[in-house]
Design a protein that fits this description.
The protein has one domain: Sandwich (Jelly Rolls). It has four helices and eight strands, in the order E-E-H-E-E-H-H-H-E-E-E-E. It has helices spanning 22-30, 57-70, 78-83, 88-97, and strands spanning 3-12, 17-20, 37-43, 48-53, 100-106, 109-110, 117-122, 128-137. The strands form two sheets. It has a five-stranded antiparallel β-sheet with strand order 1-8-3-5-6, covered by helices on one side. It is elongated and about 50 Å long. It starts with a strand and ends with a strand. Bound molecules: zinc ion.
Amino acid sequence: MPIITERFNLTTKGFTDIVDITEQVKKIINNHNLEDAQVMVYVAGSTASITNIEYEPGLLKDIPEAFEIIAPMDKTYHHDETWHDENGFAHVRASMIGNSKSFPVKNHELILGTWQQIVLIDFDNKPRTRCVYVQIIY
Ligand code: ZN
């Protein structure tokens, strides 16, 4: 089975910044004549994640608020005692969602629900440039 690997960069604000990357992923898929395929979206790094949400203003507040309960920013983390980079919360949050997500392509189309967008969430405690990989198996 052939594999295509492409990537794109984006900048984030950090602090659970949620970035809609659906159009970038679709653009890569549309550059290839794919009838049926499996598309894996991946971010390199241990403080960012790939998932899918309904990208709307309410959830853009609800998701950071939920993570503030699960892994609050003002808690002391053992990771920070080790590295003093003060982003223990970001590592814990990112590990819960994970770095990649796979999506099906059928009849040249990325299959997503009407209210489903692919997002990168950057949990780090500073702005970052992230490299997103899109790997296609067809
Ligand atoms: Zn760290």
